[in-house]
Design goal:
The chain is an alpha/beta fold. It has helices spanning 8-28, 44-60, 75-87, 106-112, 124-131, 140-151, 171-180, 195-200, 246-252, 263-284, and strands spanning 4-5, 35-40, 66-69, 93-96, 160-164, 184-188, 204-207, 225-228, 232-233, 240-241, 255-256. The chain is built from 10 helices and 11 strands. Bound molecules: NADP nicotinamide-adenine-dinucleotide phosphate. Residues 141, 164-167, 169-171, 188-192, 195, 208-211, 229-232, 243, 263-264, 267 line the site of NADP nicotinamide-adenine-dinucleotide phosphate. InterPro entries: Aminoacid_DH-like_N_sf, NAD(P)-bd_dom_sf, THF_DH/CycHdrlase, THF_DH/CycHdrlase_cat_dom, THF_DH/CycHdrlase_CS, THF_DH/CycHdrlase_NAD-bd_dom.
Amino acid sequence: MSAQILDGLALSKETRARLKERVDALVARGVTPRLDVLVAAQDPASVKYVQMKRKWCAQVGIVGESYEITETTSQADLIGKIRELNADPHVHGILLQHPLPGHLDENMALMELGAEKDVDGITPQSLGRLVADLPGFRCATPLGIIRLLEHYGIETVGKRAVVIGRSIILGKPAALMLLQKNATVTIAHSRTQNLADICREADIVVAAVGRPEMVAGDWIKPGAVVVDAGYNRVEGRKGDVGDVAFESASQVAGWITPVPGGVGPMTVASLLSNCVEAAEATITNR
Ligand code: NAP
């Protein structure tokens, strides 16, 4: 392997240690940061992610409640809960864990969630602020990616970046954030033609596809920075598999994120840091 590792786990540890200090300072002033979560109880992956987020919250001193969304939760119940949490001054962040059960309209629910508590940065208001270059909470996963690049001093100005994937929580905001950092950005998706050739031109590749090891080593320009946001379960393989074929890509890339230990821990660290910021804002705005 010739690539250097963009170590998301190590940076997330550092971030969490700094967040703990900020939380201690808040608690000393009578504010305990609180993140409340709404999660589909029947979705084992969501429940697992929420447990992991809760564990890291507890480590830095963020408290919170989880509310189960079930097949019997109506849209009115969901909206009612979000409005209640919006109005509760003790709640600083609200996380609507995706996906919700199919009978619920997730977009309608997100439109209700107050931007000042949208610590996952995925409501239309927060995304609009990103598009408009206005301050606001940024999406946790792309924010984690940008912080990782910044930490390792990766140059983005004038660089060719290719983001593979255009989801509202990952691909699109990641592309916009790279654009804000003055990269020249291409967004690729399932209808993109000659994807391998497009990737070969990239100084920075962000894979956000959900297809195990789709990005092969020979798609990578020598020395490029490769960020793998994917995590996929593959029959017969232990643990999560990224969207990038790590073995071959790491022979060519200059920098690469591992899976696990790259983008995943940075996502949670960014969520926590947004939540601490939301709690700090309540003091500033007093
Ligand atoms: P998604 O909503 O399913 O979006 C996938 C995107 O990939 C879509 O834009 C799709 O294009 C595109 N795509 C699919 N097949 C393609 C192909 N053959 N060539 C090029 N583009 C293709 O997924 P997501 O929520 O963005 O998640 C993407 C990956 O990131 C998943 O592995 C997920 O588990 C992971 N993830 C990780 C984190 C983290 O914290 N690390 C957080 C969220 C998600 P179309 O738009 O044309 O369909």
